[in-house]
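Input record (Table S2, row 163):
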Amino acid sequence: MTEFSKNKISRREQIEAKVCDILSEISSPTERIRSTAHLFGTARMAVLIAKKRGLDEDLAYLAGLLHDLRRFMTGISKEHGPDGAALAGSLLDSTGLFTKAEREMICGAIYFHSEKDRRHLPFDELLKDADILDRMLAVSYEKMTGADGERAKRLSLEFLSRS
Ligand SMILES: [Fe+2]
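Output record (fe (ii) ion complex):
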């Protein structure tokens, strides 16, 4: 791809294409569909939360899209925050279209996203909440326990309660 044609495609589309390429390597159709649904679902939930909380929607979408890619690619859950942040950083760098600050925001949120029992910066919390919100809508959130359950309760008040 030439520099000219590359720049005509938005940076979001470039990352989406890279994510889809990696996900297409997952051999089990069920796992491939589940993984794709969770990444795109979390990306959209991240935009919803960003709109509500006044955070950057574009970066939120990309953090959601990239957050579990490494875990789905390797099947390894241990340390998938830090490892996932490293993979996300290399994909963002490969486009040459992200500033250092944007890269740090996305990768920082991915780095910490498994630590649902702790509080980090607002953008980090956005990604943790988007991850939970997507799972809440895919599975019954009453089944979520511990730190995930506490977050699910807070999110259901913020987004799902009838006023
Ligand atoms: Fe996730």
